[in-house]
């Protein structure tokens, strides 16, 4: 399994570097466990929250991200 990771550094111009990482057997096992833990967490905790509340959370996080991005642009 290959993962594509792009790193963006801001200087005078944007530099994009790509790294391709091949996971070992231990890495693949960790990835599978991590995905299962995420799924269990979502099913256990988010299943008790109705869709409208989850949509409000997503909308709020988008606004927070936009605020962070605009404050980075000002510095």
Tell how many strands the DSSP assignment holds.
2
Element-by-element helix/strand order: EEHH
What is the overall shape? flat
Mean pLDDT, nearest integer?
82
Strand composition percent: 15-25%
Distinctive features:
75 residues, two-stranded antiparallel ribbon, flat
Structure write-up:
The chain is an alpha+beta fold and 75 residues long. It has one domain (2-74). Helices cover 60% and strands 24% of the residues. It is built from 2 helices and 2 strands. It has helices at residues 25-45, 51-74; strands at 2-10, 14-22. The protein has a two-stranded antiparallel sheet. The longest helix has 24 residues, at 51-74. The model has no long low-confidence stretch (mean pLDDT 82).
How does the SSE layout of this entry go?
Blueprint: E1 2-10, E2 14-22, H1 25-45, H2 51-74
Antiparallel strand pairs: 1-2
Write a brief structural summary.
By secondary structure, the chain is an alpha+beta fold. It has helices at residues 25-45, 51-74; strands spanning 2-10, 14-22. The protein is flat, with a radius of gyration of 18 Å.
